[in-house]
Protein 1
Amino acid sequence: MVLSKIVLAIDLGGTRHLHVHEDNEVFIKDLVSMKCAFFPASRWKRFVGIIADIDKHVQLASVGKTTKYREHIGGMWHVSVDSMYPNVNIRRWYEDSMGILKPSRVGIALSFWNWDKLKNAIDKVHDQIPALVAISLCWHDSQLDLMFCDECSPYHKMDDINDVKAAEATENLMIDTELGSSDILNKRRKMH
Ligand SMILES: [Zn+2]
């Protein structure tokens, strides 16, 4: 594995650091335990977009209210807050043999202290690495496209994909029978 250069490092408290690498990938890691959360640029964007949501649940949990939150941020990664534990969990989840999502050992649990420092670090990250702000979220033309995207649909199953294919085929068939062939030709012309 070729290690890319770190272009920005921010202390998140204790042994936790945020690193941005020269390829615009973001890492939140513990320098001692080596536990780590990893964000390609588009995942970072999605994560930053839900900071306020996550924070709402952190505020509830920190005053002793019961809350349970989990949000997909891309790939197999999820952010969760559970008032049973005083942390923000950024972690890979996997599907077990029954199709139930479960947290893996890969990821990092940030204390609320780390979390506050991370929130403050985000502006600094975006000031210094504007490319991370400019990046766009995934865009998909069709449902099939979306289902084949590993970032958006990491747990897709062949069955689901076949269902969508069948539905799309039926839809096309309906268009074909609804319209005469000349109408289809006109419709195609209009589309160009
Ligand atoms: Zn996608």
Protein 2
Amino acid sequence: MSNLESHYRPSSLSDKVALSFTKFLRFIADTFFKKRYGHRAVVLETVAAVPGMVAGMLIHLKSLRKMEDDKGWIKILLDEAENERMHLMTFIHIAKPTFIERIVIMIAQFIFIITYAIIYLISQRTAHRIVGYFEEEAVRSYTEYLHELETGKIKDQPAPEVAINYWNLPLHATLKDVVKVIRDDEAGHRDVNHSFADVIDERKTKEKVNTTKKEITTKENLKGNYE
Ligand SMILES: [Fe+2]
Ligand SMILES: [Fe+2]
């Protein structure tokens, strides 16, 4: 399996919940958009740009509240949100959203901001795992989109100027080149979010080990006092 198609195998209940949630949303997206990849990208990128901003804001507030360093996470997450927004800015030149899609976008944004913030506050780890799985699906969808472009089922076209400037593409770049660089971005977000979930796991395991060590030391000290 190439790095592009890598999949994180769910290892805990939280991972399984994250994967099932992603598969459910994928099913809805497949039913709604079918093979209209341009429109699919427009609507989904409006949602994709939400988690980074919500997570970045919540970590920012936590850092202020607890007076703790963020270990560079805020910048990474805000960059992710910005990058996803640029995917949207690119795709609106490829497919103009219909009136119904604009309504769906508004409802989806409202529901998703609240849902993601709640998930993040309950389980930061699950929230990052969900984005990791979302991005796995995004890579798959862009691979399918690329396949349609390469086989001529969807007509290729010149890359929008905004994309040429943002990704520093050659002036003769086409939509195929744009889909490739966007797919690479999605693979990057996938790896970052899965690794954030892993880091949170490691921190929790370390905390547990330290607590157990402290308990053992306290017990031994108490034993020593009575001997
Ligand atoms: Fe994206
Ligand atoms: Fe993404």
